Amino acid sequence: FLYKCHAGIYSRVLPQSNPSAPGFNLMQLLNKAPAGLRPAKGRGCAVPVPRIGRVKATVFATAGATPASADGSPRMKEGNTASEKVQQKFLSFIKSEAPREGHDPSFLINSKHAKECGLKPKAVYRNLPVGQLYEMALRYEPGTHITSSGALATTSGSKTGRSPKDKRVVVEKDTEGEIWRGAGSPNYEMDDSTFLNNRETSVDFLNAVDRVYVVDAYANWDPKYQYKIRIITTRAYHALFMNNMLIRATEEQLESFGEPDFVIYNAGAFPANKFNQFSGNSTTSIDVSMAHKEMVILGTQYAGEMKKGVFSVMNYLMPKRGVLSLHSGCNVGEKDDVTLFFGLSGTGKTTLSTDPRRPLIGDDEHCWSDEGVFNIEGGCYAKCIDLKPTTEPEIWNAIRFGTVLENVVFDPATRVVDYSSDALTENTRASYPIESINNARVPCVGPQPKNVILLTCDAFGVLPPVSKLSLEQAMYHFISGYTSKVAGTEMGVTEPEATFSACYGSAFLMWHPYKYASMLADKMAKNGANAWLINTGWTGGKYGVGKRMSLKNTRAIIDAIHSGELASAPMVPSKYFGFMVPTKCTGVPPEVLNPEKVWPNATEFDKCLKDLAVNFQANFKKYADGAKYVGDDMAKRIEKGGPSV
């Protein structure tokens, strides 16, 4: 019986898939057992237990056992009720004493949110060090490898990007009238009952798997505005990712962490029910409840959903506290002059904000408070398609041990990554702690911004390389979030196509865009910050005719902004849009500053410029209900900043 008990406990508590689990000495357990369970002298027989995995011991049969059978296991007397009771007592005793996988789960199962939802995982690993997360990912997650740089390469399954159409924000009494709904809004509705059903599904899955990983960490570098975030996931890769992306807790902070302010249940390996009325017939569901302070992920293993989930929550909470949350890059000069960079994919936000001469506060998510700016995150999530050490050395050098490389392709023999390959997806990513950037400013906080730069990649080639904006224009173009698609970037795109994303991050907004824009203008006015629109797109004609704006010229323009040269440069107004366009800039040919002068046909230029202005006006109609969020006067100021045709 003891042999079987030993083997059974080993298989249940110390599964052979976990070779690092320690063995245990059954003789020592017997000596610790209550008197009624210890073998009486002369009553038992020695039973040699063969080696089972890493466990080897000599076991004595308890009272009621007969000599061992041929297979080495003790035979129990039939019908011996007393002996059966002894067995059950011994089984309970040995299960309580045997070593278990994972950490003490009491911090989790005794928490308020776990009691409410019934979360009781089989094994819990909390805030594992990077090396152990590597080991767990390599052991349990197929398709995970160590690359030549020391980074961990892994895959996110069938979903290699975010699923914005599957994001749901629960309709709740306390938040309605605040959460942006309707045309253009990313916040699709879900009722509380369906949210709780999805949470139950996720918790059932988390309880059923062999182990879960918990990351307890923080959002926001300013302690005054810090929030405790708890991530519960089934993949070590996800835990390592969020360990990189959030602000890591010290051992002392973990001891006093207490109840989290927000919890993410990541059961992305399990599909959502596509038949509920809010599913849109999708098996993916990313659900946010501000009342429950929870987020549920089902049907996608793409790690970016967790990062952007936290950002969405901050986009709701921070404006309520008078703090503006921003989808932006941020760096600071030697004179403590802070610059914010806004831009959609392909505009150069990461490249231009990551400047070796200016310490990086952050590459993607920030807040602007009365005290200054601070990063929301503790890491970076950089696109690495076509990454080269010559063009982006800071990112290249950051990819090392501790970095997660998501959906990249590498040589199976040398493990050298092919950053030019989009075989799995064009959206290849690298996640690393911000400390991996050599000139990162840690803690990631800074004083009040002096410059706000809106980046656009204008493939029509009609916007100036740099324009100075009024406060009204800054609000209008911040809300517009304009860039353009070019042929080859998406299926079916053969001509340049205007695209807009409110506040340069529409998918993550919780309030109406007018709310964020009015806060931006207020903070700029209070701190005397200048706003600039920089075109990193085409010049001398539209895509296919002209050429891409040189990075050298763009960097020279940004240098002139930082030095103060452009703020005092002579300027002329632009047609239709009314921007103030500098006529001189050190390091930039004067004709380049005026796009009309480098076009081959002035009439064609005017037509393209006018068409683009009309596109802006048509896009802005979806925000016509903004006045109810900021008042009529502010709404009129915002609309005044648009083009006139």
UniProtKB/TrEMBL annotation:
It is an enzyme of class 4 (lyase). Pathway: Carbohydrate biosynthesis; gluconeogenesis. GO terms for biological process: gluconeogenesis. CDD domains: PEPCK_ATP. The keyword Signal does not apply. One of its GO terms (cellular component) is cytosol. Keywords: ATP-binding, Decarboxylase, Gluconeogenesis, Lyase, Nucleotide-binding. The keyword Lyase applies. Pfam families: PEPCK_ATP. It catalyses: oxaloacetate + ATP = phosphoenolpyruvate + ADP + CO2. Residues 148-167 are annotated as: Disordered. One of its GO terms (molecular function) is ATP binding. It comes from the Eukaryota. InterPro entries: PEP_carboxykinase_ATP, PEP_carboxykinase_C, PEP_carboxykinase_N, PEPCK_ATP_CS. Residues 148-161 have a biased composition (Low complexity). Its EC number is 4.1.1.49. NCBIfam families: pckA, PRK09344.1-2, PRK09344.1-3. Belongs to the phosphoenolpyruvate carboxykinase (ATP) family. This is phosphoenolpyruvate carboxykinase (ATP). It comes from Chlamydomonas leiostraca.
